[in-house]
Amino acid sequence: MHLGKLFLNASLNFDWGDKMEQLIQQFVNGVSLGSIYALIALGYTMVYGIIKLINFAHGDIYMIGAYIGFALTTFLHVGFFPALIISMLLCALLGVLIEKVAYKPVRNSTRIAALITAISVSLFLEYGMMYFVKAETRTFPELLPNKQISILNTNAVLDIKNLYIIFVTISLMLILQYIIYKTKVGKSMRAVSLDRDAAQLMGIDMNKTISYTFAIGSALAGAAGVLVGTYYNSINPLMGVVPGLKAFVAAVIGGIGIIPGAVLGGFFLGMTETMVSAFGGSLYKDAVAFAVLILVLLAKPNGLLGRNIKEKV
Amino acid sequence: MKLFNKKNILSFLAVLIIYAIAGFFINTGFIDSYIFLNIVLIGINIILAVSLNLITGFTGQFSLGHAAFMSIGAYTAGILTAKLDQPFWIGIAGAALFASFAGIIIGIPTLRLKGDYLAIATLGFAEIVKIIGLNTEYIGGATGLNDIPRYTTWTWLYFCVVATVLFISNFVKSYKGRACIAIGEDEIAAEAMGVNTTYYKVLAFTLGAFFAGIAGALYANYFYFLKPDSFGFMKSIDILVIVVFGGMGSIKGSIAGAILLSVISLFLQGIPELRMVVYSLILFLIMVYRPQGIMGKSDFKFFKKRGVVNVYHQSK
Predict the structure, then answer these.
(1) Is residue B16 part of a domain?
(2) Closest to B130 measured CA to CA, from A284, A6, A295, A242
(3) Which of A65, A154, A196, B236 has the smallest set of CB atoms within 10 Å of its CB?
(4) Exposed, middle or buried, B291 (CB in 10 Å: 0-12/13-18/19+)?
(5) Domain regions of chain A by residue span
(6) Does residue B4 form part of some domain?
(7) How far apart are CA A224 and CA A271, in angstroms?
C-alpha cells in the first residue's frame, strides 16, 4: 500500500534524541493523512446520512479520481489545480450516475440487498478499471514544487506538498460548510437526513437532493484521489479499497451521518495511525485503526459526536 | 413428533444414496480431481453459508466477519494436524472449539451494537484477526502455513455438510432457535416477551462460528496451504452474498445459493480478465430483480404435506 511509504519514513528515521522534532514531523504527516481520510469520510457520511447506505463504491470513486488526475496531467499536461477541478467534476458526474443506475432501483429493498449492490458496484469499478488500465501501478508526474521547509529551525521538515494537501482540504471543507448551511440544496439535504418523509411532504425533491449529495461526496473523493496521487506519486486500480475502508471507519468513529464527525474522525484516525507507526507498531497500524473503532463504538455506540437516540416501539 | 416418521426415513435414505452414488463416481474416477476440487469448495461454502444464515438470516445480526472464524478454524486445524501430528478428527474438533471460543469473545462486546454498526465492528474484528495472522511467525506470517496433510475426503466433507445442515435446521425449530428467530424479527418485541436477547445472540454467533471453524478445518486439510490474506474482507462478503442470494433465513436457499454461485464462478474461469466484472454485474442484477433471494419467500419442502404454513417466513 503506497500510503505505507509515509509510515515507513517515519519509523526508519525515529531517534529518541530529537523526540520533539520527530513529534512535530509526525504531527505534520498525521495531519496530511488525516485530511485525506477526512475528505473521503465526508462522502461516506453524507451519503449515509441521506439514504442510510454504506456506499462501498466510494473508495473506488477516489481511485477513479486519481486516474482522471493522472490522465489529465500525463497526457494533456494540465496543471495541478485545473486537474483537481476537472477530476472533481467528473467524479461528481460518476457519483450521480452510479446512484441513478445502481442505487435507485434498490432504494426500497432491504438494507442488506442495498449493501450488496454497493459492493457489486465497487467490484465493477475496481475490476472494470483494471481491465482498461491494467493492474500495474502508474507513476504520477511531479506536479508540485518539491521543496521542503524546516519548521522552527529544527530538523523537522515540512514538505510543500503537505501544505497543498492541508490547504486544499481546508478550503474544500469550508466550501462544503457553506453549501450545507447557507444554500437551499444544503438545507434540503439536512431536512432529508433528519426526516425523509417529512421533508418530502414539505415539497423537497428527494431525487434531486440525493443526486446533489452523491455529486458533492464524490467530488470530495475525487479531490482526495488527485491529492494522494500527487503526494505519493503512485496509483493502481485497487488503491481505493483500504483507504475506503479506513475512511468509513473514520466516519463511524466521528458519528456517521454527522459532517463535523467525519472530519474529526478522519484527523483522529490519521493521527493515531501515524503515531502508532512512528512508535514502532507500523505492522499493526491497520489493526490499531480497527481496535480504536471497536473501542469507540463500545464506549459511544453512535460515534464520538453522535447523539444517543432512544428507540421507540 | 416421532423420530422414525416417513419424512425422516426418506431424508435419511436420500442422504445415504447421494453419498453412495457420488462416492462411487469419485472412486471410479468418473469425477476427476478438478471437479472434486469444486465439490469440496461447494461443500465448504454450504457449511459457511448455512452457519452465517443462522447469525444473519435467522437471528438478524449483520456480520461481516464470518471469514475470520473460518480462518481461526483453518489455522487451528493446520497447526494440530501439520505441526502437532494429530489425527483429522482432533483437528476438526479443535478448529470448531477454537472458532466458537473466538465467537464468544468477539460476540459478547460487539453484539451490543446494532445493524450497520455491528457489521462494521465485526469487519474490524475480522481485519484484526487477519493482521495478527500476518504478523505471527509461528503460523508462517504473510508467507503462510505450509505442508498441511490432505485429510479431507468425500466422506469427511459430505458428513460435515450433512451434520451442519441437520444441526442448524433442527436448531432453528427448537425452543432456543425460535428465540433467535424472534430476535431477528423484532429485537425489542422479543425482549418484551422475555427473551434474553444477549444470551441468544451470543449463542447464535457462537454456533455460527463453530461451524465456520469446521469449514476452515476442511479447507486447511484439503488445500495444504493457508494464507491470512485468503480470509479477508472479500471472503466474508462472498459468504454473505451466498446467504442473501439464497434467501435470508432459508437453509435450502443457502445450499442452492452455494451451489449456483460456485457453478457461476466455475464458468467465469473461462474469461479471467472479465471474471470479476461479470460477477459484479450478476450480483447487481440479482439484487435489483430478486432482492429476497432465490428462496426468500417460500421455503418449499420436499417431503412436507401441502397446506402447512411455514410460520416464521410469513411475516418477512
Answers:
(1) no
(2) A284
(3) A154
(4) buried
(5) 4-11+27-299
(6) no
(7) 17
Residue numbers of A between 129 and 148 with CB closer than 8 Å to B: 130-131
- Structurally, chain B folds into a number of domains equal to 1
- CA atoms of A128 and A94, how far apart (whole Å): 14
pLDDT averages per 10-residue partition of chain B, 316 residues: 76 84 80 84 93 91 91 92 86 92 90 83 90 85 81 87 91 91 88 89 93 93 87 88 87 90 85 83 85 63 43 40
Query: How far, in Å, CA of B293 to CA of B253, rounded?
Result: 8
Q: Sign of the C-alpha dihedral, residues B135, B118, B252, B168?
A: positive
- State residue A235 phi and psi, 5-degree precision: -135, 150
Which residue blocks in B224-305 are alpha helix, DSSP H? 233-246, 251-268, 275-289
Q: What is the mean pLDDT of residues A77-106?
A: 91
Cα–Cα distances (Å) from B38 to A151, B34, B44, B170, B193, in that order, read 60, 7, 10, 28, 45
Q: Look up residue B35 and give its three cell numbers.
A: 471437479
Residue of chain B with shortest Cα separation from A296 = B121
- Taking the model in full, what pTM does it have? 0.85
Cell of B164: 451442519
CATH code for the domain of B135: 1.10.3470
- Residue B24 CA: distances (Å) to CA of A205, B21, B211: 64, 5, 27
The grid coordinates of residue B283 equal 450480483
Contacts of B158 (CB under 8 A, 6+ apart): B18, B19, B22, B23, B43
Residue B6 lies in a domain: no
The domain made up of A4-11+27-299 has a fold known as: ABC transporter involved in vitamin B12 uptake, BtuC (1.10.3470)
User: What are the CA-CA distances from residue B280 to residues A117, A171, B56, B255 (Å)?
Assistant: 9, 36, 22, 21
Provide the total of helices (H) and of strands (E) in chain A, helices listed first: 12, 4
3-state SS assignment for residue B268: helix
- At residue A18, the pLDDT reads 64
Domain span including residue B55: 33-314
**Contact list, A297 vs chain B (CB under 8 Å):** 113, 117, 120-121
**ipTM exceeds 0.90, yes or no:** no
How far A143 CA sits from the closest chain B CA (Å)? 33
Residue B246 belongs to some domain of the structure: yes
Q: Mark A257-292 as b/e (b = at least 16 C-beta within 10 Å).
A: bbbebbbbbbbbbbbbbbbbbbeeebbbbbbbbbbb
In terms of CA atoms, which chain A residue is nearest residue B141? A283
* B→A interface, C-beta within 8 Å: 56, 62, 109-110, 112-117, 119-121, 123-125, 127-128, 131-132, 134-135, 188-189, 192, 233, 237, 240-241, 244, 248, 273-277, 279-281, 283-284, 287-288, 291-292
* Helix pair angle (B115-134, B88-110), 10° resolution: 130
Instruction: Say if residue A3's pLDDT is above 70.
Output: no
Cell numbers placing B2: 416421532
Which helix H or strand E contains A78, and what residues bound it?
none
* A313 interfacial to chain B (CB closer than 8 Å): yes
